[in-house]
Automatic annotation (TrEMBL), chain A:
Domain Thiolase N-terminal: 5-111
Residue span(s) of domain Thiolase C-terminal: 264-392
SUPFAM superfamilies xref list: Thiolase-like
CDD domains registered for this protein in UniProt: SCP-x_thiolase (cd00829)
Organism the protein comes from: Streptomyces amritsarensis
InterPro entries for the chain: Thiolase, Thiolase-like, Thiolase_C_2, Thiolase_N
Lineage: Bacteria, Bacillati, Actinomycetota, Actinomycetes, Kitasatosporales
Name used for this protein in its record: Lipid-transfer protein
Pfam families, alphabetized: Thiolase_C_1, Thiolase_N
Domain of life: Bacteria
Length: 396, 152
C-alpha cells in the first residue's frame, strides 16, 4: 500500500512586480497546472488555497477566491495559512484528502502580490502579537534576523562574505535559465560586494526581494494517475509540517527571545534539521538518495545553513560545499536549480508550491538547460513564521 | 512641556530591581518546573513536560550575558517602529545576547555609541536602560545592551 500521491500537473505565473491582483496570478498558475495535467477545472474535486495576508480580505480565504476566479463548480474547498510554509500546508492538506479517499483530484494554488520594501506586520496597536512587538520595540526587520544568523556563522564556522556571495552567483546562474524567474541575469561576486549593506554583514544582493507570483499543482491518487495512462508520475512521498521541540534555543523570526534552558536541556539539532529529518523518515530515504534540493534562501548565508540542516554535509561545512561547486548546476548535489529565492524573490504563499513545481520538472526530465541529469529524488525545505516546518520529498 | 517617561512595553523591565541591582529585564518563572519566560508568560507555562500546578512569578533576569550575534539596521524599519521620517535615518546596532543564568538569547538594541565594530560573538555585555524614542508627550524607555566596561 503506497502513501504516495501523484503530481499530474505543475504551473506558474512568472514572478515579478506586475501590479495586478494575486487572484490573477493564482488563476493563471492554476490553469497552467491543469493544462499540464491534461485535466479540466471541472475534473477537480477539491481546491486548496494557500492564503496571502497582504492582499486584503479576500486573501484570507484564498481557496474560494481562486475557485470563484476559475468559475464556481462546487468543488470542496480548503484555505490554509502558515506564512512561508503555507504552500507546504496546502500540499499536506491536499495529500491527506487524497489518501483518505475524499478526493481523487486536488488543485493546490498559492499566489501573492507583495508590497514594496520590508515586510511589515498588520497595522494598529497590537502589543500581544510578537510580530508587531519586534518591529515596535526593536525595529527588527526580517533582514536583521538573517544578518544575525550570517554573523554567527562567520564567527562560529569561519564563513566569509565571499562564501555568501558565491551562493548568489550560483543561484543567479540557475535563475538565468528559468523562464519563470524574476531576475534572469548572471551576478558576479563583485556585484554582490558592491551592493549596499542592509544589515551588517549582509548586502542587498545577499537578501531575497519580495515579488508577485503564483504557483499551482494538480495532485491525484496513484490510481487516478494510472487511469489517465500515466504509469510513472512524479510522486510526493513525504510532507513534513513539524513544529519545534522545547526548549527552542535558536532565535527565530519573529521572536524577541529563545526559550530558557532552566527547566529542560536543549535537544540535539536545530528545528530546521528536524523538519528535514521528519521528511526523510516518512519518505524512507536520506540525503544520500537526493538528486537535488530546493531550500529557502531568504539570504545567501541561510542557504548554507540549510545544506547542513537537510544533511548534505556536517554542521559548519556548508560553505565548503558552495566553494567546491557541489551545489551548483553540474555539481554533486545541485541546490536551488530553479534559481531559488535569489532569482525569484519571495511570493510567500506561492513559494513552497513553486519549490515542488521545480522538483516536478526536474524529476520528469523537462527542466531544460537547468536539468539535473537522471534526477530521481528531491527535497524542498522551508520554514514559516512562528514555528511552521515545511518540507516535501518527491520521487520518480 | 515635560514628557512622561513610559516603558515601551509595560512589565518587561524595571529601572529599580528589588535586589538593588538597578535596571533589569523582568521575566516570569514557573514554580513547578523552573522554566523562565521572556517576554513574560503570565497565563501558562510553556514547558511541555511541566508537572503543572505551579505559579508564574515575576523574576529579574541576569544583568549580564554574552553576545550570540549582532547586526545593525541601515534602513529605516517600517511602522510600528517609531521614527521621524523628516530626520535622516541613524542606524542602530542590534544584539542577540545569551543571558548567563537562563541560557536564553534575548534581542535588544545597543546603547548609544555601541557599534558593530565594538562587538564580537562572545563579548560580555550588560543590560541597561535607554531611550527608544520620543514623541510630543512621551519618552519611550526600553532596554539596551552595552559591553561590560567597554565601548558605549
Ligand atoms: Zn512549568
Amino acid at each position: 500500500m503506497s502513501a504516495d500521491v501523484a503530481v499530474l500537473g505543475a504551473g506558474m505565473h512568472p514572478w515579478g512586480k506586475w501590479g495586478r491582483s494575486f487572484v490573477e496570478y493564482g488563476r493563471t498558475a492554476a490553469r497552467a497546472a491543469l493544462a499540464d495535467a491534461g485535466l479540466d477545472w471541472t475534473d477537480v474535486g477539491s481546491i486548496v488555497g494557500a492564503d496571502t495576508v497582504r492582499s486584503g480580505y479576500p486573501g484570507y480565504v484564498a481557496g474560494a477566491t481562486f475557485a470563484r476566479a476559475l468559475g464556481w463548480q462546487g468543488a470542496r474547498v480548503t484555505s490554509v495559512y502558515a506564512a512561508c510554509a503555507s504552500g507546504a500546508q496546502a500540499i499536506g492538506a491536499a495529500r491527506a484528502q487524497i489518501l483518505a479517499g475524499l478526493a481523487d483530484v486536488v488543485l493546490v494554488v498559492g499566489a501573492d502580490a507583495a508590497p514594496k520594501g520590508f515586510f511589515a506586520p498588520a497595522g494598529g496597536e497590537r502589543p500581544d502579537d510578537p510580530d508587531w512587538l519586534r518591529f515596535r520595540v526593536l525595529g527588527a526587520t526580517n533582514p536583521a534576523y538573517f544578518a544575525l544568523y550570517a554573523r554567527r556563522r562567520m564567527a562560529v564556522h569561519g564563513d566569509t562574505l565571499e562564501d555568501f556571495a558565491q551562493v548568489k552567483v550560483k543561484n543567479a546562474a540557475a535563475g538565468r535559465l528559468n523562464p519563470h524567474a524574476r531576475y534572469r541575469k548572471a551576478v558576479t561576486a563583485q556585484e554582490v560586494a558592491a551592493s549596499a549593506v542592509v544589515a551588517d554583514p549582509l548586502r542587498l544582493l545577499d537578501i531575497c526581494a519580495t515579488s508577485d507570483g503564483g504557483a499551482a499543482l494538480v495532485l491525484t491518487s496513484m490510481d487516478f494517475a494510472r487511469s489517465r495512462g500515466v504509469a510513472d508520475p512524479v510522486r510526493i512521498r513525504a510532507v513534513s509540517t513539524v513544529t519545534p521541540a522545547y526548549p527552542r534555543t535558536v532565535l527565530d523570526l519573529p521572536d524577541i527571545a529563545t526559550d530558557s534552558t532552566t527547566a529542560a536541556d536543549p535537544v540535539a539539532g536545530s528545528f530546521r534539521s528536524s523538519i528535514a529529518r521528519a521528511a526523510y523518515e516518512e519518505a524512507g530515504l536520506g540525503p544520500r538518495d537526493l538528486s537535488l534540493a530546493e531550500v529557502y534562501d531568504l539570504s545567501t548565508a541561510l542557504e548554507l545553513e540549510w545544506y547542513e540542516d537537510i544533511g548534505l554535509c556536517a554542521e559548519g561545512e556548508g560553505a565548503k560545499l558552495v566553494r567546491e561547486g557541489a551545489t551548483a548546476l553540474g555539481g554533486r548535489i545541485p541546490v536551488n536549480t530553479s534559481g531559488g529565492l535569489a532569482s525569484f524573490g519571495e511570493a510567500v504563499p506561492a513559494q513552497a508550491i513553486a519549490q515542488v513545481c521545480e522538483l516536478t520538472w526536474q524529476l520528469r526530465g523537462t527542466a531544460g538547460e537547468r536539468q539535473v541529469p537522471g534526477a530521481r529524488a528531491g527535497i524542498t525545505a522551508n520554514q514559516g513564521l512562528f514555528g511552521h516546518g515545511s518540507a516535501v520529498v518527491a520521487v520518480r | 512641556m515635560a514628557r512622561t517617561r513610559t516603558p515601551v512595553v509595560s512589565g518587561w523591565f524595571t529601572e529599580n530591581a528589588a535586589d538593588g541591582g538597578g535596571f533589569r529585564l523582568l521575566g516570569t518563572r514557573c514554580s513547578a518546573c523552573t522554566a523562565v519566560f521572556f517576554p513574560r508568560e503570565d497565563a501558562y507555562c510553556r514547558n511541555p513536560r511541566c508537572p503543572g500546578g505551579g505559579e508564574l512569578a515575576e523574576v529579574p533576569l541576569s544583568p549580564r550575558g554574552r553576545v550570540w550575534s549582532y547586526t545593525d539596521g541601515r534602513y529605516r524599519p517600517p511602522a510600528p517602529y517609531v521614527s521621524d521620517p523628516a530626520e535622516p535615518w541613524e542606524p542602530y546596532t542590534l544584539l542577540a545576547v545569551e543571558l548567563e543564568a537562563e541560557g536564553m538569547v534575548v534581542l535588544g538594541q545597543g546603547a548609544p555609541g555601541v557599534e558593530v565594530a565594538d562587538l564580537a560573538v562572545g563579548t560580555e555585555v550588560e543590560v541597561v536602560g535607554g531611550v527608544l524614542g520620543e514623541d510630543a508627550e512621551t519618552t519611550w524607555v526600553t532596554w539596551q545592551f552595552k559591553p561590560v566596561g567597554g565601548a558605549g
